[in-house]
Design a protein that fits this description.
The chain is α+β, with helices and mostly antiparallel strands and 665 residues long. Among the domains are: 132 residues, Tetratricopeptide repeat domain (Serine Threonine Protein Phosphatase 5, Tetratricopeptide repeat, Alpha Horseshoe), CATH 1.25.40; 92 residues, Alpha Horseshoe (Serine Threonine Protein Phosphatase 5, Tetratricopeptide repeat); 126 residues, Alpha-Beta Plaits (2-Layer Sandwich), CATH 3.30.70. The protein is built from 29 helices and eight strands. The strands form three sheets. Strands 6-7-5-8 form a four-stranded antiparallel beta sheet. The chain has a two-stranded antiparallel sheet with strand order 1-2. It has a two-stranded antiparallel sheet with strand order 3-4. It is globular and about 115 Å long.
Length: 665
């Protein structure tokens, strides 16, 4: 019906913007109608963007096309569409900021941190404030933007120093030819002519000649003519020497007061993907030193001595360590932090440097946070062997101090409370308490269980994008967790949610009632098992030969997670008991307890066999997201189940079962 109304809106609308949004909503709703629906709708969107009628709305259309590409992991195509959206957003700063935000997030998730920094830096904060984006989006920009500035500068430092070292390592003859080639390119870019003297690339001082600033004989304006400007520069330098751009530049006394601090801004060389060479320029302001476009000037930048190589290596070492700490402490991006520390130790691990102990300690910490036990143990062993008496090694050996332990206990208790709020279905209270805890203890204090149940909450709210983001955080931060493959499966299902729901909606099935069917035991011959008599307590009685259900009792667990528990057991049973269909029914016993009943099984012996085989896998494979104090196990006959539904006295039934099967429950 919604699709029909949007189509009718297009036919009657005289407002192009309304037609654009109607078509965008049609794309979202129709994406699950057929296999190639997404591609077809993408094609329609692109056609829409090319029509003159929609010229003013191209930025919105390309942004929507990028969102659709992301639904099928078309990252390159999404980036291309977002760049087009930026191109056509000249008069729409709000949309431009939205496109830059998505570009920044996209590149961050692909570990393209320099590009991500550039896109975050391009966001107009004031424009973003007026856009309907979540507080989480705004907080993410505020957190990542300054951190990525540091990371991007460090990456450029590493790239520049690596380039210079590669050129310095060339044979002398090859290096000279290479520098002359680069010098020729740089001089051409600046409008400077090569010297007539073979092999010489020094700037020649032209003969003094008055230059008309407002044009020459050809009518060219001075400041738009590269040749005139370069001649002016060389004439000035020949007459006055190197002078800073300050007041009183003629007076030597004023110049002497200026402290000369060397800065970056030199042109460097690098090797491209095909093995060739290219010129790379830094984004730092140019200085007098960088303007020395001569063979000797460029050669002076290369680390040709052991001392200068050591200085270059120190810059790389500090940049890698800085990136590791920024990823770790500011962004809490532990996989990227590990990559930085690994690269640092790969390059300089065989030498002793000042921050080596801290780097190993940080590597241990990050690996431990991600559950990479083997990597954490390796870093710990390296600490013990290299810094046996080091401060950080002793701290690691002795464990946390009493104060830290108290803090850890307090933090754990706080987040366990938040976890329980989520499980009990008090979602709004849980979100509020979590935001308070994150503000007090730091952003992104996650556990796999909390991430998983939080994603289930967002799925219930049909906020699939947020749910996917939570699940992907779980996968990246805890790749060894038993929940990681479950999270990946859920991500895959969510991306196909529309297709699945459309299929199920059109599927005609007769559903069984979600209740426990009565078991006819009238013909059952009641016989003691192993010569054990019938056990009774109050109105409950245990007969081992009666058919029995296996029971999972859930304590203060919301219906959402009851259904998730049922789905988890269904999947487990299909894998491990594929030749034995096991029905699972759920029932709310009272406000506190929900129960799942499996079976029925022929007798108590077969019910216990199923339970004994399944029970060890529950906390690690089936319900790894649910704490063990939230559920318990039992078995129950049909007669006892009917009685329990009447008196609700589950504690008395459990006492009777413990008498009948001592040590089993």
């Amino acid at each position: 019906m919604a699709l029909n109304m949007y189509e009718r809106s297009i036919k009657h609308s005289v407002d192009p913007l309304m037609e654009v949004y109607a078509r965008l909503n049609i794309v979202g709703l129709a994406s699950g109608k057929k296999k190639d629906a997404l591609q077809n709708n993408l094609d329609e969107l692109i056609k829409l963007a090319k029509r003159d009628k929609y010229e003013e709305y191209r930025d919105i259309i390309y942004y929507a096309a990028a969102l659709l590409e992301l639904k099928r992991n078309g990252y390159d195509a999404a980036q291309s569409n977002l760049l087009k959206s930026v191109k056509y957003s000249l008069d729409n700063p709000k949309q431009k900021s939205m496109s830059f935000l998505l570009l920044a997030d996209l590149n961050y998730n692909r570990n393209q941190f320099v590009a991500s920094h550039n896109f975050y830096d391009s966001i107009q904060v004031d424009a973003l404030k007026s856009v309907t984006v979540s507080k989480e989006d705004k907080d993410r920009v505020a957190l990542r933007k300054p951190a990525l500035k540091i990371i991007a500068e460090n990456i450029e430092t590493i790239s520049r120093e690596d380039s210079l070292q590669r050129v310095a390592a060339m044979p002398e003859a090859e290096r000279s030819l290479y520098i002359k080639k680069i010098l020729k390119k740089l001089r051409k870019e600046r409008g400077l002519k090569e010297s007539d003297e073979p092999g010489s690339y020094n700037t020649a001082t032209p003969t003094a000649k008055d230059v008309d600033l407002f044009g020459d004989s050809k009518g060219d304006f001075y400041f738009t003519n590269a040749n005139l400007k370069s001649k002016g520069f060389t004439e000035f330098k020949a007459k006055w020497g190197k002078r800073p751009n300050v007041d009183n530049w003629r007076r030597q006394s004023a110049i002497d007061k200026i402290s000369s601090t060397p800065k970056g801004g030199i042109a460097t060389v690098d090797v491209d993907d095909t093995g060739g060479t290219k010129v790379a320029a830094t984004d730092k302001p140019a200085t007098e030193e960088s303007d020395d476009i001569s063979f000797e000037g460029l050669m002076s930048k290369l680390p040709l001595t052991s001392e200068r190589v050591a200085v270059s290596n120190t810059k790389i070492l500090n940049a890698l360590f800085s990136n590791g700490e920024t990823f770790q402490n500011t962004l809490e991006n532990y996989p990227s932090a590990i990559d930085a520390y690994d690269e640092l130790l790969r390059r300089f691990g065989m030498t002793m440097f000042k921050k080596k102990e801290q780097a190993l300690f940080n590597l241990y910490y990050c690996s431990n946070r991600l559950g990479l036990q083997a990597k954490a143990d390796s870093a710990k062993n390296a600490l013990n062997s290299t810094f046996s008496d080091g401060e950080l090694t002793n701290k690691l050996r002795e464990g946390n101090s009493t104060d830290n332990k108290k803090k850890d206990i307090a933090v754990t208790k706080k987040y366990e409370g938040i976890y329980n709020l989520f499980v009990e279905g008090r979602f709004e209270d849980a979100k509020l308490e979590k935001s308070k805890a994150d503000a007090q203890y730091g952003k992104n204090y996650w556990t796999p269980q909390l991430l998983f149940i939080e994603s289930v909450y967002y799925i219930k709210q049909r906020n699939d994008d947020t749910a996917i983001a939570k699940l992907q955080s779980l996968i990246s931060m805890f790749p060894k967790s038993p929940l990681a493959p479950k999270a990946q499966t859920m991500v895959d299902v969510l991306k196909k949610r529309t297709d699945i729901e459309t299929y199920l909606t059109n599927l005609k099935v007769e559903r069984k009632q979600d209740s426990v069917m009565a078991v006819d035991t009238s013909s059952t011959v009641v016989k003691p098992v192993d010569n054990k008599p019938i056990v009774k307590k109050g109105e409950f009685s245990f007969v081992a030969t009666d058919s029995q259900y296996v029971v999972i009792i859930l304590d203060k667990v919301d219906r959402v997670f009851v259904n998730e528990t049922r789905s988890a057991f269904n999947q487990y049973n299909r894998q491990h008991f594929y030749n034995q269909p096991i029905n699972i029914a759920s029932s709310a016993l009272n406000e506190q307890y929900n129960v799942l009943l499996f079976g029925p099984f022929e007798n108590a012996h077969k019910a216990m066999a199923y339970l004994n085989k399944t029970k060890p896998d529950v906390p690690t494979q089936i319900l790894s997201w649910l704490q063990t104090n939230k559920y318990s196990f039992s078995i129950i006959s049909n007669a006892n189940w009917q009685l329990l539904n009447e008196n609700k006295d589950i504690n008395k039934y459990q006492q009777m079962l413990k008498l009948a099967l001592p040590g089993k429950f």
